[in-house]
Write a structure and sequence with these properties.
Oligomer: heterodimer
Order of helices and strands of chain B: HHEHHEEEEEEEE
Largest interface: A-B, 41 and 49 residues
Largest sheet of chain A: 5 strands, mixed, barrel
Distance between the termini of chain B: 34 Å
Number of strands of chain B: 9
Structural class of chain B: alpha+beta
Distance between the termini of chain A: 24 Å
Number of helices of chain B: 4
Strand content of chain B: 15-25%
Amino acid sequence: MTRLFSIATLCLVLAPAAAVAHHSFAAQYDANRPVTLQGTITKVEWMNPHTYFYIDVADDTGKVVNWAVEGGAPNVLYREGWKPTSLKAGDRVTIMGSRAKDGSNLINATSFKLPDGRCIFAGTSGPGGTGTPNCTVGRR
Amino acid sequence: MRHPSVFCGLGPWALGLVLAAGSIAAAAPQWQGYKTPGIPRLPDGAPNLAAPVPKTADGKPDLSGIWMAARAVFDLSQALKKGETIPLSAEGRKIFSERRATESKDDPSARCLPTGLPVRALLRTPFKILQTPTVTAILYESRTTFRQILTDGRPLPEVDWPAWNGFSIGRWEGDTFVAQTAGFNGKPWLDQAGYPASDALRITERFRRRDFGHMDMEMVIDDSKMYTKPWSIFGEFVLQADTELLEFICEENEKDSALLVGK
């Protein structure tokens, strides 16, 4: 995973960010339900108005469940240093975010933690959307 | 962690410097990092945002360039001009209260319909101003939308087909560019919080470029149906050097609207 982000790219991600949302965060997500997902990316949708990442996560019983992860607008992430191929199917990541209010397996991501420990901002406009990545582990 | 090193402290322009130093700027993807011609530079190559305001051939300040709000605002109560409040009328308060009670789940912009002009200016997505003697165009990266502010002397039109963006004319008051817009259809929300607008909305924007890299905007919101008197917001824009507008096709992956449950 170290190939994913160069030092320059990582610095861009760590710089003050432009959080943008095309919808109300609070209408869809519950900031009081922090979620941490650890698993393998299965699909990436690098499209406006939001990126979507799909990730296979094993639950406590070992059953694998596919979760959807909403990220920031690709335009925002691109200027933060992300590329359309920065995360690909097969990559293992840990994703911090807030769970959807409807209880579905969907979260709004605040940060991604890479296997080498680096923490990158996911472009959320919700809590934590200040551009500062925060990989404090929540709960599922 | 906001500025983990001096290098990182250069912010978004660091990539441009890296690319330029590597003499591969011509291959900059989507021109991100390609050095915008015509921008005054400091000895280290960084844009000199404190340089003087550029002027057009007729001596007016030239507002042309790519700009972005200095800070993101989704709720206009956070962008009020000093001393201002938002004077909701009874009807305006009823609508606003309903929208707050449902966490703005019915915002048309969440369905990729246009944002209101006030929040669009303050979203912190870039927009490009193209100034000519007879029209000043604003190309918004957000939703890949545009406005044209006509400066050929015509008055505001009689409107029998109101529009999401209304119809705009502009004039100069000294070094301030004044844009007046009317003919709105009342559909867009002024912001994501849900401050409403009706077909009575009239917006007056005053743009003043302070120096090469900074521009102030004051926006007067006048809507006699939704507010008891006109009120004003303020925004500061910063020139975005060494970047270009990116495409933003909102409909391509819009899947949230069906999931907006409110409270």
